[in-house]
Amino acid sequence: MPVVLGMEGSANKLGVGIVRDGVVLSNPRRTYITPPGQGFLPRDTARHHRKHILAVLKESLQEANLQPSDIDCIAFTKGPGMGAPLAAVAVVARTLAQLWNRPMVAVNHCVGHIEMGRLVTGAGNPTVLYVSGGNTQVISYLERRYRIFGETIDIAVGNCLDRFARVLKISNDPSPGYNIEQMAKRGKKLLELPYTVKGMDVSFSGILSYIEDATPTMLAAGECTAEDLCFSLQETVFAMLVEVTERAMAHCSSQEVMIVGGVACESHIAPSSFTRDVGKCIIVHINMIPLYPSSTFSGKSIHTPPKYSYFDAI
């Protein structure tokens, strides 16, 4: 039963986890949180990671009740991600591997999300909707390779939500997307926004530009509330994602869909969103990454009854 210590720091979240034979023994994290209206810069994020990584490492070993001699392998995020934060964590990983005389494993960030999701939820071979601040892809595993069936052609959905949060000066604690979701729950009015699906790909730059320009005018005129804007943006971008994911499921004859990535934390992108009529239930696996350091992974597997959808007419 190998014991693997993994280090992740591809963006503003820093984590050091320990896994033994598929069981997560520890997973402490630190998040670099900037003031409302601001994003996080690579240089400042890397400085945050360098400041906290040794404390998080110590906490991870203590939580797992292990010593360095118990570690069999060191894994780290190779990319994709932000260069400076990735390098800061990789230097520590390489140093530990040399000090402890342990092998290293470089992990692809995207594959890590998928495999972590499969581990936590128990999914078999699902169609994957990978949604985060830096990536938006619809993926399936065929013939020993991960195949990308669709993706964003410009910015990621998480980046779209984060940048809109800056327009409204929404807090970044614990994350902009989470706070947008809370405001969206109080929204009453669905506004018509650009809906851009091109085949199996999606585009979020147009809807972001539109809502950034329209927000000050609409709020000043009293045409809607900030909550209405959050509700409308969330509904529109999630509908786009569900459409292309369902199409990929139809192509793969898949009964399972797994949602991974930071945006999977948002409960609104939920099983009820998937409406493909396949004659039996769709199994939706959601790998909800914990937002707070004290929380744990909460992978969910939910059977969703079939509903009428546009697939019935195809």
UniProtKB/TrEMBL annotation:
InterPro entries: ATPase_NBD (IPR043129), Gcp-like_dom (IPR000905), KAE1/TsaD (IPR017861), Peptidase_M22_CS (IPR017860). It is found in: Cytoplasm; Nucleus. SUPFAM superfamilies: Actin-like ATPase domain. Its EC number is 2.3.1.234. Residues 29-269 form the Gcp-like domain. It is an enzyme of class 2 (transferase). CDD domains: ASKHA_NBD_OSGEP_like_euk. One of its GO terms (biological process) is tRNA threonylcarbamoyladenosine modification. Its main location: cytoplasm. Keywords: Acyltransferase, Cytoplasm, Metal-binding, Nucleus, Transferase, tRNA processing. It catalyses: L-threonylcarbamoyladenylate + adenosine(37) in tRNA = N(6)-L-threonylcarbamoyladenosine(37) in tRNA + AMP + H(+). GO terms for molecular function: metal ion binding; tRNA N(6)-L-threonylcarbamoyladenine synthase activity. Pfam families: TsaD. The keyword Membrane does not apply. One of its GO terms (cellular component) is EKC/KEOPS complex. This is N(6)-L-threonylcarbamoyladenine synthase.
